[in-house]
Design goal:
The protein has helices at about 1-25, 60-70, 100-105; strands at about 45-55, 75-80, 85-90, 110-120. It is an alpha+beta fold. It has 2 domains: about 1-30; about 45-120, Alpha-Beta Plaits. Strands 2-3-1-4 form a 4-stranded antiparallel beta sheet.
Length: about 120
């Protein structure tokens, strides 16, 4: 019986504190501070573009590069040209690099030659 009374008193006290806090918030919302951690905004990296000269043989090569490189971390846009033998990639410089993208293309089995880059 004592446990029930103590638990009841604790529940009433908790409810009373919550109600008092709610009343205080309604009366003067400017004095309320939240105890939630602030969300950190992810800093967006600089978007850069690089054009690799890649020895592509056919449309299947183009498809293979498109399907694989498009999903590399940081890739924002990808254009593969069989006629020009190029792979143009816009990427988030905070998430990947020219070297990582070149390695990803080479991992697919393609030879990557000199490249042009645009530092935006």
């Amino acid at each position: 019986m004592k446990k029930t009374i103590i638990l009841t008193i604790a529940a009433v006290m908790t409810f009373g504190v919550t109600t008092a806090a709610a009343i205080n918030i309604e009366e003067n919302p400017s004095t309320v501070t939240e105890n939630r951690p602030e969300k950190k905004k992810k800093a967006k990296g600089e978007v850069k573009e690089v054009v690799f000269h890649v020895h592509l043989h056919c449309n299947n090569c183009v498809k293979k590069v498109q399907e694989n490189i498009a999903f590399e971390k940081g890739v924002k846009d990808l254009k593969v040209s069989l006629d020009e033998q190029t792979v143009a990639v816009k990427y988030d410089a905070s998430k990947t690099s020219e070297e990582a993208l070149k390695a990803a293309i080479e991992k697919l089995g393609y030879e990557v030659g000199e490249h042009d880059h645009d530092h935006r």
